[in-house]
Structures are given as C-alpha cells and as structure tokens.
Amino acid sequence: MNADLWQKILPILENRLEQGLFTLWIKPLDAKVEDNVMHLSAPNEFVAAWVRDRLLETIRDAAMELTGRRVEFVVTVGKRSVLQSPAQPKPRQVAESLALPLGHAPRTESLSRWRFRFDDFVVGPCNELACAAAKGICNNSLNTDHLFLSAGPGLGKTHLLHAIGRHLAERSNRSRVSIACLSAEEFTTRLVLAIKAKEAARFKSEFRESVDVLLLEDIHFFQGKGKLQEELLLTLKALQQRGCKVVLTSSFLPRELSDVDPQLVSCFASGFMAMMQTPDYATREEIVRRKAKSLQVQVPDNVTGLLAERLTTDIRQLESCLNNLVLKARLLGQQITEELAWQVLENYAVQTPMPGVDRIVDFVCKTYGIDERELKSKSRSQQTVLARNTAFYLCRRHTDLSLAAIGDRLGRKHSTVLKGIIHVEREIAHQTPLGRQLGNTVDRLLV
Q: What are the C-alpha distances in Å from 103 to residues 44, 70, 100, 374?
C-alpha cells in the first residue's frame, strides 16, 4: 500500500458524497502511509473528529472497493492523532480549533471541481422543461434570476446544478463571477462554525454581498429550523436585491414543506419552478448508451434494453449497474453479455410492475413484524416509527400519491409524512448503519 491509494480514493468519494461534504471535509485532508496504515491529516481538531465520526466508514468502503481488502485508517491533526488512549488528555479546545477547515468565503471553484456538464445530461420528456430552465438561467433567457428544481433522489437535480455552475464558471474566467455551490446542510454547518469562531458577521457579509450565484441543494433540510430560516431568508432577499442568480433544489415542492416560514416558502416559489419525473424507457436507454460511451466500451443493444427495462426509478442506480457490469467484464476478461448483465442485476432492485399502497403496507408489516393496525396506531416505539417512515418513503417513491394522500392512508398528517421521508432519505444518503439497513430493506420491495 502506498500514498497513491488516497489519490485513487478521492474520485470515488467525490462521486459518492455531496459536493459540499467532499469540499468541506475531505478536500482538506493530507495522506501518508506508515506501517501499512493510511494516516489522514486534518487541519484542526474539529475537522478530524467530524471525519472520524461521520465519514471514516465511507472512506473505508471506498478503499475496500479499490483494494479488495480492509484498509486501516487513522485520522490525525498535524502530528497528533485524535485516536488517543484514555490515559492521554484531550487537546485543549481553543477558538482556532473551531475555525472552518477551508477559507469559507464563497468563490468560483475551478472547472475541474464541477462534476457534470449540460452536454452529459440526457434530455427526455421527464426533464426537458427543467433542463431548458437551467440553460435559460445561464443565458438570461428565463426572464427570472430564481430557479427551483424539484425531483426525487437520483433523477438529475445535482447534475443540472453542477452544469449551471460549470457553465457560469467558464464565463467567470473573464468576468470573475463568485459562485457558491453547497447543500443546505453544509450552509448550516458553515454558519454554526462561523458563529463558534465569532465570525458570523463575516459569514453573512460574504454570502449576502460577495456571492453572485448561489446554488443550494436540498432546501427541505431547513424545515423546523427557525433561526436558520431567518438567516436564509435575509440572504436570499439580499441576493435578490443585487440581481444575483439563485438556484434551489429539493425533493419537494415549496407548498409541500412544513414548519417553514411563509415568507421563505413564498421566496422559494417566487421564481420559475420545474419538476423532474422518472425517465421513460427511451430516455433510460439513451442514458445507458451515453454512459457506455463515456466508459469507452461497447454494450450490446439487448443488454442496454435489459438495464433500461429493469432499473426504472433511479438514474444513479442505472449508471452504477452499468459501471459494475463493465468492471466485472474487464476483471474476468469477458465480453459484456446478457447473461453477465443478469448476474450484476442480482445486486440491484430490478423493477416489476410498480407496487400500490396495499402492497407497500403489506411488505412493511411483514418486514418489521407488525400488523397494519399497529402501523397506523399512535405508537412511538422505535420499531413502529421506523416501519411507518419506511412506508412513507416507499409510497412517495413508488406511487403518485401526494403527501396528504399518503398521510390519509396511514393515519398521519402530511407534515409527519414529510419528516419521515426526509429522515429515511438522509440516513440512506449518508450511508449510516441504519441507512444501509434501510437501503437493503426498501430494495427488497421490488425483488
């Protein structure tokens, strides 16, 4: 094992994590190998603890994919390891240790940091309007500087956001446009860290006065966070007054959000809103073809059709399956065939006719060992709440029911349904132990 392994791990982490998480927590790390252990050096105690507690397992998984074995990692701060023995005193916390891991001034990132471009985006009936709106806000043909993109997980919101950023960053080489691209959770983290470091005024000034373009993902994260909503509202108003461009994304429409200040909801909905739906069969086929071309590999038409037919609800899953198919063929020195594709598809939730609410409820009850009456009851036991949230998530993902209709079917308010869905989405997206368990559970519905 050598230090080059870290350079190979980085692209995997960049694709797997939200861009904000990667930039804020992974990018500052340095790596070296000693005694067959990978030492990751963080700029301060806060970053080291955050990486160790929340991202180390994801880093280990990426290393496992590359090496086929478990790699030992130790997170250090300079020359001091944060993995100390109980006998060692904890380092004294000083204000500097809470400083941001990177200079947090919003700025245009280098073109290499933008993961996607418009040319790579496959346009179909499901996303044609959203793509046109994204291009329109770049070339000033949209007649508004505010765009709201809504879509389920894995349907292209992040792709369009990064395509917008890349397009404007290319222009910024001449005009020096300041672009801030981050998730709502990262925005929150930066603000909290700035407050702890007594730099809140600087943070507010930079976002309200220095940013020319704000690209903000997953704004439903602000639900129920009154103080953060106030800060965001003031930021958006300041940007609006300066004529800056703002693009927001969420899994939900503004009217579907709960525990959000009405003024903020109005601000979210003040520009152009575009929804992105599940891609149709022809679009999924084209996605496979484009991805195969980027991987420089020939995929037979029957295999392309098979993947497009069996993986219907999540573009990320479709592309992941193709990646694994190509990798398996290369490792085994085989041609890509339909038989090999079926073997890879066994690791994915291949699609059968879309399940209705009754099937989802029956599946959840059997999975969690409860009956439908308990699922609809007021019980707050951990098992029942987890089952209920799983049902909410599956109904939202696999049916056309509104949040209110899902709530009526399962005896809950639409705000409760929304919170349950967001909880499941976050656990799965962050790949926590519970998230991996939930991912495996929801995937079994369509097996």
A: 13, 33, 7, 50
